[in-house]
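TL;DR need structure tokens for one chain.
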Amino acid sequence: MNPCDLETALRRATTTGTMLQEHELCWLYALAVMAPPGPAVELGVYKGGSLSVWCGARRFGDPVYAVDTWEPPVWSKVEAEFQAQLAQHALCITVLKMPSWESAEVIPGPVAFCFVDSAHDDTGAPRDVQAWPSRIMPGGIIAFHDYGVSKPTITVKKHVDAWQKEARWLSLGV
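>> reply
TL;DR here they are.
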């Protein structure tokens, strides 16, 4: 892996593109810096823009995993761009093509950092919330994209809040 400063990491995202805004990428980078040494995971990577940003913050040489289903026709359109992003930035990442919640059983843990940007609906979000928090090491960080988005098709907040009501993890912000 090729650690870098925030400015360099943000430039990485512009080479491939990302659906995250700059302030979100900066927060993600900061969270990856705060996370302890250990494996790191992004669930729902698409072209790899956000993945390449937070990977720049990881300085431990620990394994990094990219998980997505890349369902057709999406995968055929972005596979080359994703692989080019990994090669261009010397990102040594294990890629898993599978549902995010199933990868919790495949990726060795415990995990130090997990960015969940996969299924945002009532089918996938509860599965990720059920599968991933128990895989996070003490002091580790799990971040959920689109937590604050209020749309009928995006129910991340509802499922995270239900889990958090019982789990009572420390919130680092939104």
